[in-house]
Design a protein that fits this description.
The structure holds 2 protein chains of 2 kinds. Chain A has 24 helices and 26 strands. By secondary structure, chain A is an alpha+beta fold. Chain A folds into 6 domains: 139 residues, Four Helix Bundle (Hemerythrin (Met), subunit A) (Up-down Bundle); 98 residues, Histidine kinase CheA-like, P2 response regulator-binding domain (Alpha-Beta Plaits), CATH 3.30.70.1110; 136 residues, Alpha-Beta Plaits, CATH 3.30.70; 57 residues, Orthogonal Bundle (Helix Hairpins); 180 residues, Histidine kinase-like ATPase, C-terminal domain (Heat Shock Protein 90); 141 residues, CheA-289, Domain 4 (OB fold (Dihydrolipoamide Acetyltransferase, E2P)), CATH 2.40.50.180. The chains are: A alpha+beta, B mainly beta.
Chain lengths: 826, 167
């Protein structure tokens, strides 16, 4: 729309991108499941149709015409499938083109996100979609799909050109079907806007402006939209009514209106005999008025769509006045309502009641239809002036507009349509999921404030002013309560940031599918523990590594089916993705049952690449596997499309470490390999032990501390190169003097003056020698300032820093890096 | 002094650009006066405890807590290769913001804010025995002598100096 261009509002764009990506993910999921099962259920088809329709609408609104064009074609295709079903033989071409289309949409979205130039169009893809549609049609030429009006649900109006019958809103036929109306046809249109869009009068005004370029607008109601604010509420309740003349055909007009901003439903119908006669008088169908209460068979499901088809078939011979619930077409929740309370129709028809009854045939899953003759309103109002609720309902009965009263959300009207038997009370609407979308930055802010509160709390409770105060009972009581509350608050804030890993796992199905095809390998992806919740920031950080690992497994791990069969394995490989919460950490496993790793080959390769750090015979199996993660190591000679670009697993390791995790590789030659990613639950607030070294403050995560103790000189063993060690319960552990490592002056150097902290990081263990323990407290982990990142403090054993209660800064020690660094130097 | 300064510069972000244009904060190191474009300055604070960070070069003193924000602190004297000197009550930390990176710079004393027109600024020297010319992007001439205009980016930049080893 014109008014959107230029200043395409940022938040709107953000919303658009968010909505699109979740829809496309959903689409991917449906497609992959369907493809796997080689079945396309009715639900799936409807869902895909709905997704395509939404994407088309939103992208047209945002003026991404290319996306709109492609999705339009797909929507047509699925409309056809919805009406006519699809034969199994067409699944493969359909899924292929659909998946390619989602890829195309993804690249487009990415381009939008990055502000890149959008592709000018994808005629090739559109061509393919049309090709599939033609294939589905068989020999049918466009237009034939619309052949017979449906007495039953099955033939329906085909995907092409149902121009000659009143078309329900929200379905457009391709432009080539312009065989219906020619120039200057008068139409009447009834438009409802989204309930919460606000300023309905202005929206209506914009709609009028939009239409002006292509239509001759004869009148609209309410007429004073420009000047009268109150018309907004009037439009909200009764809708906005337009009478206009245009050379466009019905579908084009419908489309133009549908694609206007915030238009919820729009009903466009040609005005027979001209608009002048349209006002007043019964429509040509005339006849008696009936009120019908329909109940569908209990197990038919999708009652809303059945009702919709019923209405469509009735339109042939009857003048539908109204029905309830009104929004059957686009609100799937109405299905429950109909199942529960039945479906009410008010219509006018000249055919006798008996014949009418026969129209509700059991073929359409109608269980019973209660038909009741009612008195027709005697005073019809002009169609374009429904100004009060009653008038609106009445005018529907008589004016031509009545014919197309399809979605009529006005409450008054719905009530008017209800039968006296009271079966249709306002149904219990199934509870909508109470979920809101919150931008991550707000959650980050919340987390920051949470951190500040934790700091402040300890600032208050450890205030030096408290020293020497005798009676603090009440203070301590209150402080305990405060502590309890902040703990609870923290738990909640944390849980808010948690999202299930399912979304990340879901994406992997696609990768496995694509790679199986490209590499001619057969593989099955099994996912477990998808509902494991992980901090959003961490999820974002591990999505790429997991993808990398899955690709690696497909490319390097899984063998070709023949090879697998020869080895006595199932030709179809299994890749397992699992996530589990092990208390303080999340353990994510990516494993395959492929050929596994050969430690000797790895070492030889590493040697050839010159990345061995010690004599090759000193490598344990585990260390050899970890060579995979060394920079510059890639076991595959040739570069493939998917992996093996020489970056290898070192990127995975780096990314996992970035979120505070560790990588462990296990393998059994011939039986596959597993990569374990250990990820902390959250990054932000941890329990820490504060220690001092030479006056400087350091914090060690409680989870990595085994024990702390004073050592006597005679317990210390010194090896020939001067390295100190200590025996704890029969095992020898190296001693790392922190003052030496960090070159801190004025620290204790006598081992008996300070204290030893026995720490553990994964498999590695050591004792850190520090001056003294200060105490335990919760700390808020902050990264070091980005200015310092060039000095790579992380690899020197600094994971970050934290602000203590007294305002001082303590450095958080990364035990793993410290041990690694020390071992490297020894 | 620093009180007043803090007042004017803290609100710098909302100030009209024009009011900050051509304004420079003058500070002293040894006997020499330096000027720094005021739009870079976000704060002037007294010296406060700094936590040393291993792996950083000498001139990076460490990090400090500026009202809940952790910022790195560099000692300009060491950066310029001058002799270290004990902090006194005039020693200040000028907090500069360069491309959204906040860094505190320890200097001997802050003296004043001056206005320098384009005409008052001369090209940097090609040689100086006072300071490394890489850090200077111009010379401001005033009635009270010359001020060396600091190139903040250069002062903060590393020039590819590798981080010193841990030994």
């Amino acid at each position: 729309m014109k008014f959107m261009s230029g200043s395409a509002n940022d938040s709107m764009l953000e919303m658009f991108l968010f909505e699109m990506s979740s829809l496309i993910d959903q689409l991917d999921e449906i497609l992959l499941t369907s493809e796997k099962n080689q079945a396309l259920t009715e639900d799936d088809v409807n869902e895909i149709f709905r997704i395509m329709h939404t994407i088309k609408g939103s992208s047209a609104m945002m003026e991404f015409d290319v996306i709109a064009a492609v999705t339009h074609k797909l929507e047509d295709t699925f409309f056809y499938i919805r009406e006519n079903g699809i034969e199994q033989q067409f699944f493969t071409p359909l899924f292929d083109v659909m998946l390619d289309a989602t890829d195309f949409l993804k690249t487009q979205l990415e381009a939008i996100q990055n502000g890149d130039e959008l592709s000018a169009g994808n005629p090739e893809l559109e061509e393919r979609v049309l090709g599939v549609l033609a294939m589905l049609n068989g020999t049918a030429s466009p237009g034939e799909g619309a052949a017979s009006p449906p007495p039953a649900e099955e033939p329906g109006m085909g995907g092409k050109g149902p121009a000659e019958e009143p078309v329900p809103p929200a379905e457009e036929a391709p432009a080539e079907s312009a065989d219906g109306i020619t120039h200057g046809t008068p139409y009447s249109a009834e438009v409802f806007f989204d309930e919460d869009c606000g300023m309905e009068n202005l929206r209506a005004f914009m709609l009028v402006n939009t239409l002006k370029s292509t239509c001759n607008i004869i009148s609209y109601d309410p007429p004073d939209i420009e000047t009268n604010q109150d018309s907004a509420s009037q439009i909200l309740v009764h809708g906005f009514h337009l009478i206009l003349e245009t050379e466009l055909d019905h579908d084009q007009l419908q489309e133009i209106i549908d694609e206007c901003m915030h238009v919820k439903t729009a009903t466009v119908i040609p005005v027979e005999g001209g608009y002048a006669q349209g006002a007043g008088g019964d429509s040509e169908i005339g006849g008696d008025r009936y009120e019908i209460h329909v109940r569908f068979e209990e197990d038919c499901s999708m009652e809303n769509l059945r009702a919709f088809m019923l209405i469509n078939s009735l339109r042939q011979k009857c003048d539908i006045v109204s029905f309830s619930p009104p929004d059957i077409e686009n609100n799937s929740e109405t299905a429950f309502e109909i199942a529960k309370n039945g479906f009410d129709i008010v219509l006018q028809t000249p055919i006798p009641q008996k014949e009418l009854q026969s129209m509700f045939s059991p073929a359409m899953h109608v269980h019973d239809a209660l038909i009741k003759k009612i008195a027709a309103p005697d005073k019809p109002e002009p169609a374009h002036e429904p100004s009060s609720p009653e008038a609106a309902a009445d005018s529907k009965a008589s004016a031509p507009a009545a014919k197309a009263s399809a979605p009529a959300p006005a409450k008054a009207q719905a009530a008017a349509a209800k039968p006296e038997n009271g079966a249709a009370q306002p149904a219990h609407k199934p509870a909508k999921p109470n979920i809101i979308n919150v931008s991550l930055s707000k959650l980050d802010d919340l987390m920051d404030i949470m951190g500040e509160i934790v700091i402040t709390e300890s600032m208050v409770t450890h205030s030096p002013d408290l020293k020497g105060v005798a009676d603090l009972d009440n203070f301590h009581k209150a402080a305990r309560q405060l502590r309890k509350l902040t703990d609870e608050l923290q738990d909640i804030v944390m849980s808010v940031r948690m999202v299930p890993i399912a979304g990340t796992f879901q994406k992997m199905h696609r990768i496995v599918r694509d790679m199986s095809r490209a590499l001619n390998k057969e593989a099955n992806l099994v996912t477990m523990g998808e509902d494991t919740d992980i901090d959003k920031t961490i999820i974002d950080g591990i999505a790429d590594p997991i993808m990398h690992l899955v690709r690696n497994a497909m490319d390097h791990g899984v063998e070709a089916p023949e090879v697998r069969e020869a080895a006595g394995k199932n030709p179809k490989a299994t890749i397992t993705l699992s996530a589990q919460n092990t208390g303080g950490e999340i353990l994510i496993t990516v494993s395959d049952d492929g050929k596994g790793l050969d430690a000797e080959k790895l070492i030889a390769k590493a040697k050839a690449n010159g990345i061995l750090t010690k004599p090759s015979n000193e490598y344990t199996e585990k260390e050899a596997y970890m060579l995979l993660c060394a920079p510059g190591f890639s076991t595959k000679e040739e570069v493939t499309e998917f992996s093996g670009r020489g970056v290898g697993l070192d990127v995975v390791k780096k990314n996992i470490e970035k979120v505070g995790g560790t990588v462990v590789i296990e393998s059994k030659p011939g039986h596959g390999m597993s990569v374990f990613l250990k990820i902390p639950l959250t990054l932000a607030i941890v329990d820490g032990m504060d220690v001092t070294v030479g006056g400087g403050l350091y914090t060690i995560q409680i989870t990595s501390i085994n024990e702390s103790f004073k050592a006597a000189r005679e317990q210390i063993i010194v090896d020939t190169t001067g390295n100190e060690m200590i025996i704890i319960r029969g095992d020898v552990y190296p001693i790392i003097r922190m003052h030496q490592l960090f070159a801190v002056p004025n620290a204790h150097t006598n081992i008996e003056d300070g204290i030893l902290i026995w720490v553990q990081a994964g498999e590695q263990s050591a004792c850190l020698f520090v001056d003294e323990l200060i105490g335990e407290q919760q700390i808020v982990v902050k990264p070091l300032p980005s200015y310092l990142s060039r000095y790579d403090a992380k690899s020197y054993g600094i994971a970050g820093c934290t602000i203590l209660g007294d305002g001082n800064i303590s450095l958080i020690l990364d035990v793993g890096s410290i041990i690694e660094k020390t071992m490297e130097m020894r | 002094m620093s009180e007043i300064m803090t007042g004017t510069t803290m609100s710098g972000e909302i100030d009209n650009e024009d009011t900050m244009h051509n304004k420079f904060l003058v500070f002293e190191l040894e006997a020499q006066q330096y000027a720094i474009a005021i739009e870079h300055v976000t704060d002037i604070i007294n010296v406060q405890p700094v936590t040393r960070v291993p792996s950083c070069p000498d001139f990076v003193c460490g990090i400090t807590n500026l009202r809940g924000k952790v910022i790195p602190i560099i000692d300009v004297r060491i950066r310029f290769g001058m002799a270290e000197r004990d902090y006194d009550d005039r020693t200040c930390i000028i907090v500069v913001d360069l491309h959204n990176v906040s860094v505190g710079m320890i200097i001997d004393r802050v003296s004043e804010v001056i206005t320098l027109d384009e005409d008052d600024i001369a090209a940097p020297p090609t040689f100086s025995n006072v300071v490394d010319v890489r850090f200077i992007k111009g010379i401001g001439k005033t009635d009270h002598g010359i001020k060396l205009i600091l190139d903040c980016a250069a002062v903060l930049d590393d020039f590819g100096i590798p981080a010193p080893g841990m030994e």
